[in-house]
Amino acid sequence: MPGSPRHDRTRGGRAPGADVSEPWSVLLFVAGWLTVGLVTAAWFVIRGGHAHLLWYVVGGLLGPLFIPIAVERGHSRTREVDVRPGRPRAARGGLRVLVGVDGSPDSDRALDAVARTLAGTTSELVLVSVASPDRVGDDATAERAATRRMLDDRVAALPAELPEPTTEVVVGHPADALLAVAETHDVDLLVVGRHGHGLRDRLLGSVADDLARRSPRAVLLGGLADR
């Protein structure tokens, strides 16, 4: 009946409170969008080695639209960009050792432990440093040049009892790259620090733990006790 409370409530076409769920629907949609994007970005960073915070921003903005991009680019292939062959020793029964070098204190301690404890038993030594796959152009050139200088500095400090090492700068996911180089050189032992270099190691997760789980070869984490 005109003028009745029922008629007044429905005259605007919608009763009060009928649209209360709309803000919640929007919030749920935004939350789902962000969640899918950020989870995809985390997978992209960890599995692809793309250790840059910007990918989380991209994932949050693109949401589900980031999934095909992550699948297409999500796994960085290992590429050698700077290799300097060393001089292995023809020592029967000698160890072939690969050391992951990233300039971090843990990495330096691991390399120093190899120098102190395996100098007389190593027939081949390979030092590998992994560069980011996200850098391009001048940034990539600068990073690789700095990595080469860092490797050269470590080589210069090695004792003469060790064989002249092969040094490699490769691009890719750190664990994948180290495993690929280890396979190429058929090494007996991989040596890495327990913790990598700052933010990149935190973004990618522990490379040392990843190697320990996946490597078919012996992996030494953090160095050796003095003999």
TrEMBL record:
The family this protein is said to belong to: Belongs to the universal stress protein A family.
Domain UspA: 96-220
Transmembrane segments: 24-46, 53-71
Record has Transmembrane helix as a keyword: yes
Keyword terms, alphabetized: Membrane, Transmembrane, Transmembrane helix
Top-level taxon in the UniProt lineage: Bacteria
Lineage, uppermost ranks: Bacteria, Bacillati, Actinomycetota, Actinomycetes, Micromonosporales
One family name in Pfam for this protein: Usp
Keyword Transmembrane helix: yes
Organism: Micromonospora endolithica
Protein name according to UniProt: Universal stress protein
PANTHER family per the UniProt record, alphabetical: STRESS RESPONSE PROTEIN NHAX, UNIVERSAL STRESS PROTEIN UP12
